[in-house]
Amino acid sequence: MSLAPLSDADVVARCRSGDQVAWCELVERFSRYVYAISTRAYRLSQHDAEDVFQEVFARTYEHLDRLRDDEAIRPWIGQLTRRLCIDRLRRDSREQVGDEELEPLEAADVLELLDEALSVHAALAALSGDCREILDRFFACDESYHTIGETLGIPSGTIASRISRCRGGSG
Amino acid sequence: MDGPPDFLDRRLGDLLEDIAARTPAPAGGSVAAIVVAMAAALATMAARFSSEHWEGAGGAVAQAEALRARVAPLAQEDARAYEKALEALRLPREGDPEVRNAALGEALALAAAVPLEIAAVASDVALLAADVAEHGNPNLRGDAAAAAALAGAGARVAANLVAINLGAVESDERVARARALAAAASEAAARALAPSP
Question: Is residue A139 part of a domain?
């Protein structure tokens, strides 16, 4: 059974009870996020990013029982990744400098973008398959109603109202 | 070297002067893109006033905003594509005809691709605006209908430019596609402008 439609909190709860499939889902759900923070926001090398990746998920596994809010697993993982990236940059820096000086200027913007992308991904994952496909084609791939209609075999005149219904949550 | 001014950064009065000037661009394609962007903005406004009347209002706002973001930059792109086509037309005829024909063909294909994209977005805006007119706040029906009518006009203008820029080859798939998009937009505009039942 796919765990993709489960909320973050449900996945965390299952991980805590020792469900290995749920743990794989959690790693799968946040692996790109963690890797993107390391490489895009903090510009770590691939080698360092892989080390951070291992460390983040090892610590997450150890801390599962102590999380205060299961729903907040994403910001928790994000914050942990940032801290480990800064530690890595500090280790490589010859001078004693504060966290703010180690943080690349555009890190905050990149983190915001990554968070937004993950929110969109989570929102799409919670939708029915039809809605997910139609929203993805319109908003992410910039396809026209005509193209979507042709591809999915749906009258193009009905695409706008289908998208409105999907966005309204009744899809 | 400075490029042409971005139309979206121009004051409206200055942009109207730019359009009226005796220069090749901005011309019909750019104006169609701007009109369609305005139609999308109008549809957004009508949908925003419809949240208490229609559960799809939020989805319509999101779509209209996405369509506006898609079409607005095409005003500039159309002007660039048109200027490139003019440059290709000015290539010396005494040179290698194959080189000139290839450059000309490429430039004209681009000059048709941009209005085709404008026609596609315009058709979507007209369909969406007709939906807003039908389901949204009745007090804003006139604005939603205006959005559909303007988008419908933009689609027809853009489709005509596709045909002109491709040398009016009706058998060309792009011309047929543009005409189909314009027909769908016109039908949606007529529906939106029809007296409410």
Answer: yes
Distance from CA of A5 to the nearest CA of B (A): 22
A9 pLDDT more than 60: yes
Instruction: Select from B58, B120, B123 the Cβ nearest to the Cβ of A168.
Output: B58
Do B135 and B50 meet the contact criterion of CB atoms below 8 Å apart? Answer: yes
Which segments of chain B have a pLDDT < 50? Answer: 1-2
- Cβ distance of A168 and B127 shorter than 8 Å: no
CB contact under 8 A, B121 and A160: no
Domain containing residue A167: 129-171
| Cβ <8 Å between A139 and B66 | yes
Q: What is the pTM of this model?
A: 0.72
> How many domains, in total, are found in chain B?
1
Number of domains in chain A: 2
Could you say which DSSP state residue B167 is in?
Answer: T
The amino acid at A78: G
In which band, very low, low, confident or very high, does the pLDDT at A94 lie, cut at 50, 70 and 90?
low
Q: Which residues of A touch B180 (CB under 8 A)?
A: 146
% helix, strand, coil for chain B, step of 5: 80, 0, 20
Does the predicted interface ipTM exceed a cut of 0.90?
A: no
